[in-house]
Design a protein that fits this description.
The protein is mainly α and about 475 residues long. Helices cover about 55% and strands about 0% of the residues. The protein is built from 29 helices and two strands. Strands 1-2 form a two-stranded parallel sheet.
């Protein structure tokens, strides 16, 4: 049986693991901004400022319950005359709910614009009646939806516009439901440009509480605009909320999101309107140029470099890497041949610059395991011949790396070059030629017949090609 001291020790180990795992998951498995939004949940529930149906529920008499049911039946049938008669007799029936929805929820959901306008007029005529209550517009149903949420969920644009014009309050436009969706986010997703513009003008950035601003900066409102490939919508949002362009999450910036989506027009818009974004990296150290390489989009790579050629100097560095990757090294490592060819043709000087870890871009060809990997080596040597002579921090030439990474196809190509004899006898910092490494590796793998056979074949090939004893 474990002692108390052992239990305390295990608890400490478990807590350390939980701390590490949480950090790991945050960085690698966070789905868009939902994790950050979840962290803000406590703040946002304060910011919602709406009341649930239960919180405003009256203790209705049996007669009032019967009238409430009649009111909802009238709403379902579109009978606004009967509905208004019932509300005039008891305005508190506005808060009577069936299945968690008030009469305003029901009519908004059904898209009965005429009925909703009658309810709007009734609410406007009774300011004193509703003064002691929370306004009917911000009453939340069981899913924490307002009537505006439901109008937008069911694609009733004109009805939603009527509600916004009548009650243009931030707590209405930016109310957050259980799914952490705001009406304005639903309007953006639906592509209602005019409605979104009205919302942003009626409830401007300056009128929003710090809690809601914080939520918006970590929400998907810009992502939604880009998902719809609606450049006009994106411009409307950023014209009214330019601060959103500066929002940076663990894994994404607005420009990088456009890059990941392959949305060239949005990339061009950001580069022209917010040029500083090209120099902004994520918490993971990813710059837009690296993101474009990740998704293998040469068009966006060209756009970024045409606006900001200095991006070729940007290094992708994070806490899990030693040093960093410039774009040419990263494109090579990722196996993006067309991008590598473009960079070598237009920016050949970067093939002669090493990264922070003292490796040159050509050395990253050994990280490629595709069938055409030798093509990368050919591109480097044909475009920038001096790359053949580059050595890394350990003094290793390309031939040393051929042995270390077991790449016979590279050796087959290299031995066809006239310059091969110039690097044949070069030694690394330990004083070994690549032939010395080959012998050491054969000795090390003497218990592995398959590896030994491979190196013997390589040795025999060299002896046949160069007519000397290895």
């Amino acid at each position: 049986m474990a002692t108390e001291i052992q239990i305390q020790k295990y608890d400490e180990i478990i807590e350390n693991y939980i701390s590490f795992a949480s950090k790991f998951l945050k960085r690698y498995y966070m789905c868009r901004s939902r994790y950050l939004a979840g962290l803000l949940d406590a703040e946002m529930r304060i910011a919602r400022m709406g009341l649930s149906v239960d919180e405003v529920r009256e203790k209705y008499t049996d007669d009032e319950k019967m009238k409430g049911c009649q009111l909802h039946e009238a709403a379902r049938n579109g009978d606004h005359v009967l509905a208004l008669q019932l509300l005039q007799s008891n305005p508190n029936l506005m808060f009577y709910s069936v299945d968690g929805n008030t009469v305003l929820h029901v009519t908004a959901m059904r898209g009965n614009r005429c009925f909703v306008k009658k309810l709007i007029d009734f609410i406007r005529e009774k300011p004193l009646v509703f003064e002691s209550k929370k306004c009917p517009y911000i009453i939340l149903n069981d899913d924490e939806d307002t009537a505006l949420h439901l109008a937008l969920k069911f694609k009733h644009e004109e009805l939603a516009s009527d509600l916004v014009k009548e009650f243009p309050e931030p707590k209405f436009v930016y109310a957050v439901n259980k799914n952490e969706m705001m009406p304005i986010m639903l309007a953006v997703r639906a592509g209602y440009s005019n409605l979104v513009e009205d919302m942003l003008k009626q409830a401007p950035w300056t009128s929003i509480s710090p809690e809601i601003r914080n939520f918006l900066q970590h929400s998907t409102i810009l992502h939604d605009a880009m998902d719809t490939k609606n450049l006009g919508m994106l411009q409307i949002v950023l014209d009214n909320m330019p601060a959103l362009a500066e929002s940076v999450s663990v894994w994404c910036t607005p420009l990088i999101y456009a890059v990941n989506k392959g949305y060239v027009e949005a990339v061009q818009y950001f580069l022209n309107k917010f040029p500083n974004l090209v120099t902004t990296c994520t918490d993971e150290g990813v710059f837009p140029i690296h993101a474009a390489i990740m998704v293998d989009n040469i068009c966006i790579v060209k756009e970024i470099l045409s606006h900001y050629p200095e991006a070729m100097n940007q290094e992708y560095t994070n806490e899990y890497m030693f040093g960093g990757w410039r774009p040419l090294s990263y494109a090579t490592y990722m196996g993006r041949l067309s991008i590598v060819r473009f960079m070598l043709t237009n920016f050949p000087e970067y093939a002669t610059k090493c990264d922070s870890d003292r490796d040159f871009p050509i050395h990253w060809t050994f990280g490629i395991h595709a069938d055409e990997s030798v093509d990368f080596l050919k591109e480097f040597i044909s475009c920038v011949p001096e790359t053949l002579y580059q050595v890394n921090e350990r003094g290793e030439t390309i031939l040393h790396l051929v042995v270390r990474y077991t790449r016979p196809e590279y050796l087959s190509y290299l031995k066809t070059l006239p310059e091969f004899n110039n690097i044949f006898h070069l030694k690394n910092v330990d004083g070994n030629t690549f032939l010395d490494l080959m012998k050491q590796k054969m000795e090390y793998h003497r218990s592995h017949p398959e590896a030994q056979t491979f190196f013997k074949r390589m040795k025999e090939g060299l002896e046949r090609s160069f007519k000397f004893q290895v």
